[in-house]
Design brief:
Layout lengths: L1 H14 L20 H12 L9 E2 L28 E7 L2 H12 L6 H12 L10 E4 L4 H7 L3 H13 L7 E3 L11 H8 L3 E3 L9 E9 L3 H12 L4 E9 L1 E2 L9
Parallel strand pairs: 1-8, 2-7, 3-6, 6-7
Antiparallel strand pairs: 4-5
Helix pairs in contact: 4-6
Length: 259
């Protein structure tokens, strides 16, 4: 049956060639790949200053302490500590063409974007020495009801895309034990409370002392990343690193340990 579907699909493509567009901005081009304009945009994102801990982008370019580079400062949420993950990074800020691509991937059934989005996520971390020590990759899980509704876990698709590039296995270490209100509908104080007790370990694999790469589609306030990381650390993980396709913007902390 699968062979017949593939033959029919190839025949349809011959009759009606699929439109080749940039997966981020949708611009028509000769090949289905990220266009030069979007590649320049992504390179620009890598030059922006981010919070050293949560990886969120600052609202405006900030001048960090002399000689320490663009990842030296902490945001207001991370300056006081209390994060269960070691650090997190994202391919770019959650705005413009990148935001629209992530939303198409997440809400419009565009599973085919997983390869391109995981590719730009890999590009963001490939030169970071901390991410070269990853032993296991895990995805932030969806609740069973949300998974049935959407048909796929977008974080899991990104995790497998990263696994192919990093040659590191994906393990189903986590499960979501109850439905929660959408994080986007809540204010900052309510996001952490909304997720308390919502995640548990599956017992699918031993990871004591290992470095885990935790994958999600978007880091907004890092509340989800923090709660899930706490679950992994309590279960014995040595260290948790986060990665997402996009991250929100935040304000840099001022004073000791910040800017």
């Amino acid at each position: 049956m699968k062979i017949i579907e593939n033959i029919l699909g190839g025949f349809i493509d011959l009759l009606f060639p699929p439109r080749r567009v940039c997966p981020l901005c949708g611009k028509s081009q000769e090949e289905k790949k990220i266009c030069d304009s979007c590649l320049n945009m992504l390179r620009g994102f890598r030059e922006e200053q981010v919070c050293y801990k949560c990886g969120r982008f600052f609202h405006v370019p900030e001048e960090g302490p002399a000689g320490v580079g663009q990842e030296a400062a902490y945001c207001r949420d991370c300056i006081g500590g209390g994060r269960s993950f070691f650090m997190a990074r994202a391919a770019g800020p959650y705005s413009g063409d990148l935001k629209r691509a992530v939303r198409r991937f997440k809400y419009s059934g565009r599973r085919d974007l997983a390869g391109d989005l995981s590719g730009i996520m890999f590009d963001r971390i490939t030169a970071n020495r901390h991410y070269n020590r990853v032993d296991v990759i895990a995805a932030v899980p969806l609740s069973p009801g949300r998974l049935r509704q959407r048909g796929y876990n977008q974080a899991e698709l990104l995790a497998y895309g990263l696994s192919d590039r990093m040659k590191v296995p994906v393990l189903p270490l986590l499960k979501k034990t109850r439905e929660t209100a959408p994080q986007t509908s809540l204010g900052r104080p309510g996001r952490g409370e909304n997720l308390l007790g919502a995640f548990a370990l599956t017992g699918a694999g031993a990871f004591t002392g290992k470095t885990i790469l935790l994958v999600d589609d978007v880091i907004t306030t890092a509340a989800t990343l923090n709660i899930v990381s706490e679950t992994l650390v309590r279960g014995g993980a040595g260290q948790v690193l986060g990665i997402a396709a996009a991250a929100g913007r935040t304000a840099a902390a001022r004073g000791k340990g910040g800017i």
